[in-house]
Amino acid sequence: MSQERQNNEDKLIRRGHPIYESNPSLSSSLPVKVKHKDPSDLGTAYRISRDTGEIVAHGAIGFWEEQEVDSEQFVKIYIAGIRQYGQLSKSGATMFEYVYNEISGKNGKDKDTVAINYLLAQRWLDSLSRRTYERGLKELLDKDFIFRSLTSEIYFVNVRYMFNGDRLMMAKVYQRKEANIPVQLPSDEPLVIDLEANLINE
């Protein structure tokens, strides 16, 4: 994306929030922390997923159990997302659950967008009031869980907070599409959340 195009994009605002042509959570313009570790130091050994490149365990010696989970029920929620989730009000948490539900399962796999409007949300939760919907949606936008797109009812999901699929592959696709802009996602350890059971598992 050219600098001029990005500047024009930054000027677009809808209801107090910027409008983006592409997902800003995959943009190299967001700050990324990179930590260097000396591989010769046994105490800082890391186990890294071959599929995603993400750190899944660390320490000098460790034992772990691998368990497959049903991709229709689970989405990876990253540490940064958990921190923000803890600051949501009841309205925000309700709309977070709606977004989570929409990106869960096979239909949401590897997608970084979600359709959100009051009628769709009310179909998901028939007791949802317009006030709760609007307050919750605003909170998700304020805390960067989602971003406005050029299409009014389509929102980008912040893949640095949560994603259903291989977000490293998504970043690589974005990199190719955006003329080889270097993209690096943070290596937060993912958490798997089952909202129906109200459990958080590492």
Give an overview of the whole structure.
This protein is an alpha+beta fold and 202 residues long. It has one domain (3-35, 70-201). 30% of the residues lie in helices and 18% in strands. It has six helices and eleven strands. The strands form three sheets. The protein has a five-stranded mixed β-sheet with strand order 1-2-7-8-6. Strand 10 (190-194) and strand 11 form a beta hairpin. The termini are far apart. Residues 30-37, 39-43, 61-65 and 197-202 have low confidence and may be disordered.
- How many domains? 1
Radius of gyration: 18 Å
Strand order of the largest sheet: 1-2-7-8-6
H/E element order: HEEEEEHHEHHEEEHEE
Low-confidence stretches: 30-37, 39-43, 61-65, 197-202
Helix content: 25-40%
**Taking all residues together, what is the mean pLDDT?**
75
Strand fraction equals: 15-25%
Distance between the termini: 37 Å
What characteristic shape results from the CA principal axes? globular
Structural class: alpha+beta
Q: Report the biggest beta sheet as strand number plus sense, adding barrel if it closes.
A: 5 strands, mixed
Total helical segments? 6
Number-wise, the strands total 11
Topology:
Layout: H1 3-10, E1 13-14, E2 17-20, E3 46-48, E4 55-58, E5 76-78, H2 79-85, H3 90-103, E6 113-115, H4 118-124, H5 130-142, E7 146-149, E8 154-157, E9 162-163, H6 167-177, E10 190-194, E11 199-201
Parallel strand pairs: 2-7
Antiparallel strand pairs: 1-2, 3-4, 5-9, 5-10, 6-8, 7-8, 10-11
Helix pairs in contact: 3-5
